[in-house]
Amino acid sequence: MAFEITRYSGERASHGIQSWRQRDSSRSNRTLHAYRSWDTLLAARRRGEQSVAMTDVPLPLDRGLFGRLRRDAGSAWEDYVAHDFVQALGRGTLPEPAFRHFLVQDYLFLIHFARAHALAGFKATRLADIRAAAAAVTAIVDVEMPLHVSYCAGWGLTETEMAAAPEAMETMAYTRFVLERGLAGDLLDLQVALAPCLVGYGESGERLLADPATRLDGNPYAEWIGAYTSEAYRRAVRDAIAMLDRLGGEHGAEARYPNLLATFIAATRLETAFWDMGWRAGA
After folding, report:
1. Cα gap 259→250, rounded to integer Å
2. Which residues of the chain have pLDDT under 70?
3. Catalytic residue among 152, 197, 203, 206
């Protein structure tokens, strides 16, 4: 999953942000706040500022429905957020072919990530949730993907190359699983399938900065780490955790918990497989 903070001066990003702002008629709707983090990221980049270092306030990873799912996922969650790929990023030792392969597959992943949020809009029954889904699609298509393409150019990858690349089996399995859960279930099923992606990257970043073995000076992956440890990204994680808790209350999560946990564990294992895919490319 990409959430890069890279150089991007195109007007489409600004237009996308303004468009979703204009559609947001409910300023009290916290669901949209996660996607407004892009405003902070892009404004800082235009001013030439570096990523904002994360504060000492930890993410609320043990709270609510997400905290219960994370806890009950056991070793599956730990295998994901502490993967060798992530550790190598922190140490700056990840082979570059592994990272390039990951970036290409992440580009393809983002296309289906946008589709999943479009599906969330279809599945939503509250206007605020429909607005949030529309904002997410705009953010991914008009902001995040151009940012990803810009970042990948620094690694010698063009959008034409990435668009023409075949999907790895791991990319296909993960993205189609998320879409299937959304199609077969409701908005809660879909958001539970998506949660390991957004929140897991936030936890991995938090762990990296707390790890004495992590180095940022001279690390070719420091900018990537900075993206997932910025306060803007961490706000998005907090809001996603809160949204999942709200949806759980509205959609009867307690009675459905075994099925939700099965979805969460499957999505977590598919995230781990995505790291595995990148790791093998560097062997």
Report:
1. 16
2. 1-56
3. 197
